[in-house]
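Task: complex structure prediction.
Instruction: return structure tokens for all chains below.
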Amino acid sequence: MSDAGSPSNAAEVKPKADDNTLNIKIRATDGSEVFFKIKKTTKLNKLKNAYADRVGQDPGAIRLLFDGQRILDNATADDLDMEDGDVVDVLLEQVGGSC
Amino acid sequence: MLQRHKEQAILSGDPHVAKSFSRVQAAYQQDLTKTSRHATRPFATHVGLPPADLSAALGSLNLDNRKPLDETLQGRPVSKSIPKVVKRDQRPAAPPLDVVKGHVYTQLREQDREAERQVRERLQPRIPKDVTDDQAAIIEKRLRDHAFEAILGTATLSASSLQRLRPNTWLNDEVMNFYAEMINTRAKLDKRPLHCMNTFFFEKLSSVGYTEAKLARWTKRLKLDIFALDKLLIPINHDNSHWVCAVINFKQRRIEYYDSLTDPDRRYKVFKTLRGYLESEHKEKKGSPFDLSNWRDQFDPNTPKQNNFTDCGVFACQTLESTARGRDLIKEKFEFNGNDMAFFRRLMLVEIASGELGKRPWGT
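Output:
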């Protein structure tokens, strides 16, 4: 499974790029990047689950952020005015209690 | 009994004593009529009964329960102190009148101020030990609801994150960010120029950097000009194990840092990072360098501390909340301490369940 341009297995995929799909880059804090092609109308929790699947993480511990705002599970790319090539930040759950 | 003998002796004896005794008697009787007048008047005016009922009510009250005089006088101490007479020319000279006046005025003013302070302190509500019974019922219901999900703006909080508000549990980013969102919602309603960032802001800023993390887009998406704010609030997670918070105070030109544990000098990096952020953001948005020359880094090592290894998130949330409410924590100090955190966990549960911050009658 690979990166740029190629359709990923788990995300909503369409072989041919049209007006209805976007290429989205998911970038982690450590700099690693994964590309997905998504439908504009797909709920983005699918993207989260696909990413979690890819990196072997619990989807419950994954936070997707677009321009600093948490992406809600039932939001779509359309809702967030995402454009082709946009970057989605991925962060992991943060916890804290003491040093 | 002894008193009675004394009385009789007085009455039968010296005519001067008898005279002064009758004076006392007269004064006492006058006193009694005064008291009964005062007793009836407020009763009639305040209770507002119709006149017919009034006399019946008065009768039933049995106001006239006075005892005979000698019985009442029994047990009264006989004053023995006789003022010492000092001759006029032996008295020390009185200070000038205006000095006395000034002194009396100052004293009265001080007394007044002290009385006012005491009254205010008595009237000032304290932080309660627990939430009300109604709120406790809500908490129980929400904690048992496995399908619980709260959404406010772009903050979302799941059932498992809610469980983290139980005692002795670490808070996670969902709780912190939901709280931040509630602070922002209230600030918008109150038209306070402040904003609370989410917990990912500092992580991105410190680990990836302003440009690389494209933090300019964060404030653009929020349509936020941070330089028009009074305060920018920043919850910070250290090493995925500790919550603290910082406040960029534009009005006072200072960066405040609050840690509910003893800070192992992590504040220096935070001050440096946030100063860097102000410079980068100003350059990006305003096109000119930001003047940080008269800005202070503010840190008070004597702020209240957590008395366990779990409450830092609650501390950070409440510190941000009181700052957002307008309290100057540097000047006015904290309203709470480590012992109040059990209550604040419960209050936060109620607040998250209702989606808005509660009133804080103990706050200023």
